[in-house]
Amino acid sequence: MKAVNIKDIARIAGVGVATVSRVINHHPDVKEETRQHILQIIEEYKYIPNNSARYLKRSESNDVGIIIKGIYNPLFAEMMQKIERILSQVGYTVMLHHHMDMAIRDMDVAQEFVKEKRLKGLICLGGDFEDVQTEEVKRMNVPMILTSALQNEALDRKVYSSVGINNEVAAFEIVNYLCMTGHQKIGIITTGEHDQSIGGRRTQGYMRALSTHGIAKVDERFEVGDYTFESAYLAMKRLLVKAPDLTAVFAISDIMAIGAARAIHEVGKSIPKDIALAGFDDIDYAAYYDPPLTTVKQPLETLSETTAELMIALLEDRSEHEHVMLPTTLKIRKTT
Amino acid sequence: MKAVNIKDIARIAGVGVATVSRVINHHPDVKEETRQHILQIIEEYKYIPNNSARYLKRSESNDVGIIIKGIYNPLFAEMMQKIERILSQVGYTVMLHHHMDMAIRDMDVAQEFVKEKRLKGLICLGGDFEDVQTEEVKRMNVPMILTSALQNEALDRKVYSSVGINNEVAAFEIVNYLCMTGHQKIGIITTGEHDQSIGGRRTQGYMRALSTHGIAKVDERFEVGDYTFESAYLAMKRLLVKAPDLTAVFAISDIMAIGAARAIHEVGKSIPKDIALAGFDDIDYAAYYDPPLTTVKQPLETLSETTAELMIALLEDRSEHEHVMLPTTLKIRKTT
DNA sequence: CTTAATATTGGAAACGTTTTCGGTAACGTT
DNA sequence: AACGTTACCGAAAACGTTTCCAATATTAAG
């Protein structure tokens, strides 16, 4: 059961394959009459061009890849879908690549992905690109956008784009707010990664806010989780015994804030009366949590749109590489 | 900056292209010495075979498509990622196709997607396949799995696989539970679709439970939303005025249950004391909501695994088409 | 009616693989 | 020494397109 190909169509229509190719590619040099005739045959035989052959001939694809690294993050999944929607509207297909293997360099998987699939562009959601060489990304030879990813300072900013938020500043703002409302003993539930990570940056913001208000760092107020409810629940339980005098807690993700809330309720304390609680991300759920969670909003929609549109512009050569930093906004709700 | 190809490698290694092809495809008929030599050259020149050419020649790809239809559903996003993970472990790449266009038949987009991309298999997450013809899916000629999708009864079950849950039964069980605990006036927040939809089936389960307990249907206790917090919040507000004597509400998704909870709290009523609340899905948040939400658990993990593994088996011709119905489990928590 | 210009068209080469088919080399057997 | 095996290898023909180039058909101009 062989599929019908361009030659079949040409034969049936009584024209050359070149002509058929022209009509499917919307070239102007075809008589209207011929075009209609061919179009009709194509319709009738349900001919669909073979993408492999086209891509081979043109030595490129219409595909852009999205790489997501690490543990499952609902935010990324959502962003990916939004990006896909925009890209597909202008004819691109997105290929997904999710990998958990922390031992492999992000750049290695990126390179292989791009070359093997002949991708036209690459979007990395999250991940860290600590040790990437400028040469490496140049060699890939397709536009790359790092969205919500950590960026290596040494990397030449002309060779890639990025879109994200300023994690340090955003974290600063929310714990600054906590300080302003009178809190002195503020705990943090962060992640155990190194400084150059999302969690690391947010932790830095937390510390800067503290020192701005003349509050000394106290180790007992630190705990780590891994972005899951469960880990934060456990972390909060530890915090509650290590630092029983806490009046506020900043969790570096909403998920973790909610996990922490459970631990707080469990010991009979109330939020925000006994302990104030702040999160980060503003996931959909945050506003509907009870009580509604104070948090800092990541502009998910804008993040995705900007990424997708920048990619399209880059692909169409309408733009140089850019680095856009989107503003976050404080969402003061009922947990503080 | 042309990429290095198989001919280059052959030339450099001083062998024929056939030999190089043999080593990259792990054919046995190559002397170990030659193989090593070629492998080394490949490594040195960072040669990666051109997929378009391979696919063209073999007239197939290693890609399987996932189609998601309709409004954003975090459950599907999560499932997709899990499926991707398993499939990629055995060498497949997944291509994503999300479409919102309700006017187009699912089967049409499926067909085009498969043919155009030369997909080896197709997974549909959600969507409805009401008017699909057996012939149509046969013609696609690749294994198709409908996961959490509605199935057309007229469709020959030998030509496709499905994995899902029994929505009617699951809904029955949870509202049956509500009845057993003494509730008589039970509202529902469902979706406005036709009977042959996820929402429709769950509504049927609700009604069957009611009639089993001799409770008459009363129209004022019905409201519709669209799977969002907001819509359910609004729906619940309406319910509260239309049917002020309600003692329990069943929302056909957890998201909607949580949206409804906000409306309930807003009028000063408490859950579950004044009104009991039940959801559906058991999304991660459900257990961490305050109070933890009673719901019915969809076996997300198993659903994804089953789908992925069935697809692999189908692709390797190790299995016939199957229809698996996974069990749901009641999660009785604190809202009832 | 010729000629020049222009609008359409088809042939064929190329894109980078895989695979068939036959060929050479090396070896063990008589 | 001649032969049959076996192991290994290369040439070349596909796969289904796109596109350059030359060829033909059509129209405009003179």
UniProtKB/TrEMBL annotation, chains A, B:
**Keyword Chloroplast set for record:** no
Q: Per its UniProt record, what CDD domains does this chain match?
A: HTH_LacI (cd01392), PBP1_LacI_sugar_binding-like (cd06267)
Per the UniProt record, which residue ranges are transmembrane?
Answer: none
Q: Which UniProt keywords apply?
A: DNA-binding, Transcription, Transcription regulation
What InterPro entries does the database record attribute to this sequence? HTH_LacI (IPR000843), LacI/GalR-like_sensor (IPR046335), Lambda_DNA-bd_dom_sf (IPR010982), Peripla_BP_I (IPR028082)
Molecular function per GO:
DNA binding
What region holds the HTH lacI-type domain? 4-58
- Matching Gene3D superfamilies, A to Z? 3.40.50.2300, lambda repressor-like DNA-binding domains
Q: Does the keyword Magnesium apply?
A: no
User: What name goes with this protein?
Assistant: LacI family DNA-binding transcriptional regulator
